[in-house]
Amino acid sequence: MISVRTAALAALALAPALAAAEHAGNDSIRKNGYQGPQTCEECHPGTARTFLDTVHWKHASRVDNVDNLDPRAEYGMQNRIYTFCNGNDIVNTLKEIPANELGKTKLTGCDTCHPGDGIQDVGSRGPEAEAAIDCLVCHSARYDWSKRKPYKRADGQIAIGQDRSVEAALAVGKPGVKNCMACHESAGGGTHIKRGFAFDAEHDVHAAKGMVCADCHAAKDHKIPTGFDPNNWANDGVRLSCEGCHGLKPHSDDDYDRHTARIACQTCHIPTAGGAVAKDFTHWAKDEATGFWEPSTINREVSVTKPVYAWFNGTVRNEPHLIAPKGNRKDPKSKIAPFKVYEGRAYYDAYTGKLLSMDFAQPTATGDTLAGVASAAKTLGIAKYKPVPGWQKIYFANSHLVTKSKALTCDRCHSESGQLDFDSLGYTPAEVKKRKLDSAALWFEKLHQKEMKKEEW
Amino acid sequence: MKKSIAAVVLAVAFTLATGTVARAESKMLGTVTKIDVAADGGSAVAVMKDAKSGQTVEIHVQDKVTLDKFKDKRIAPGDEIKLKYDAKGGKNVATYFKKAAGC
Questions:
Q1: Contact between residue B25 and residue B95 where contact means Cβ atoms under 8 Å apart
Q2: Does this model's pTM top 0.80?
């Protein structure tokens, strides 16, 4: 029987031939031009309306795996308050930043990646919202991103341009890597800052094989499957995992295959993380060249930091000072998984103990972070609050930067200087010693045989 | 004293002999004013306006990821860029070229 993985690779091999097949609607587009979603709807009726129900449009969804949330409410970039992005789409909506001391201003906001036009914004509904969808920003291989910039309309509203050219419309298809990464690599304040991964041949074995994001995150009705992540709450209700393609016995090695019962694939196959490790939203740093201020950030390049390992069963501990995976060794649903750990400082309300949000307009112009808190509080209708700085630790799932050649081998975990901290994972020193979990005695013969095989020329 | 002088003389002699001077990597926050991608698509020259000095600097870009961003205008004139570059063979060659802004 053909495996899912084999079928996927076969499909990849056929991809160039399939890509050569022209989109069936191109004749109509050539003849009638491209008018946005109404053109797409000629062959894909109802798609625009259903797209408005997805996370990509709403930037939120109901969340059933995170502590201390209202199960009837929706959560996501639209409204979350946490310390990686201390603003959100509501308090830090696209706007013109006040002039800084050099007289410079700019148009920016958390929702600049929303696939609308800036006027029909996050979570908007109705025919005008449907007409504002930027289908081509995700689906065109020839999208001109220089057209997708914020601008001020004659009525003073800030909008975002779109490329609705016939040239772009004639190149529609499954989203390519650049369609996804144009937004997803820029989250959190700049390139690779939030997620800290690049999806290219150098950094990911799937990219090296020619796969694109949508090969794993294969959508149906624009609902995008995602994995479980302590810090990525909004979801379209569809989940994916490595096992979906690779199964539970992907190695030609029984010892490695035995690990899959309690060790997530990412643990061995994603031994690095990247991006920002800490930010301070209470003190912003001024760029003397531009006169603008930014949250003080300690950033690290892609694939240079070591993950932290913890048991994870897909549910999340959500407290004002901690967002972390839940799970433990005794829980059969838990596996050891790698996480990028991040710490952020922001203002908490001394009266409630809850984290406060921030409008970035004022601090960007002047560095006055409390003015940003005051503006956000006004937007959210919070009349009385007392801001005090505090730290929050956040665990991000480490799910990209996948490697085969640099995956952890026995010696990388089972030694005193190994990647895993057995103590923090619930293994007593006595058990570690008894089972030789940190000793070459556990793996020497096996690895030596492999080394000998490698040295056969 | 003699030892110190000898050390300096040796260092100068080594530098002259090798014909190279170790240069520090340069950094810049600037705005793209023009991008010319070579006909074969394998390299490009980006003209950058340094936000600090206001001067323009030509930066040679050779990495595929950035070149792809030039081609589909994910990086285009008007974008603010954080970049690092080395002077090599009379050219400023980018070692890091990323958009400064995010969401």
A1: yes
A2: yes
